[in-house]
Amino acid sequence: MIFTAFFQALGQIGDRRFRRVLLIGIGLSLALLIGIYALFLGAIQILTPDTVTIPFIGEVGGLDTLLSWGSLILMIGLSVFLMMPVASAFTGLFLEDIAAAVEQRHYPTLPPATPVKLGDALIDSLNFMGLLIVANLLALIVYIFSGPFAPLVFWSVNGFLLGREYFQLVAMRRLGRQGAKALRAKHGPTIWFAGALMAVPLSVPLVNLMIPVLGVATFTHLFHRLQGQAASG
Question: Is the CB of residue 60 less than 8 Å from the CB of residue 51?
Fold first, then answer.
């Protein structure tokens, strides 16, 4: 079910409307990544009184550091971790466009959805992003002592949180907040596994720029399949 939903999302890249959103989404993901990376460098400067030297970059300081080639390489490397909050922030901005494009092609007989208000979607996304950051900070000790299993722990933690967010926001368009929570609770393990499968490619530099869009599309398909199961049951 999950893999079918993903390959359906991937197969829609040829759709002009979907491709437009995908390209805009890649640009937005890159912009968000640069913004979060800039905050990361700024936090290093604030928290350390002395000059900090980072491999491949040198001394951290100001706009020159942010625009250096070494900094670009480090940002691509750190995107393994930084794309998790980027993907979380992304949903509030393009959720409706992506979900509507998927439903127009694959579920044309459905009545119009009730779009999640942009303000509500952004607030939910920011809340989820804050939870994502705090959860990963708390899990740092677990990552350190997990040895070779650290990536599995990382994907599991972030998969749970991203799956929860993406499914919740997609489902709210059709079921409202309480209905979305109920369906999410009923299919928690499936949603968790789908989120983990989304977290894995988010850890692959450059490939991860496409995943926020494909993630929304995948969870749109997954929602309709799970809702169909609930209706038939």
Answer: yes
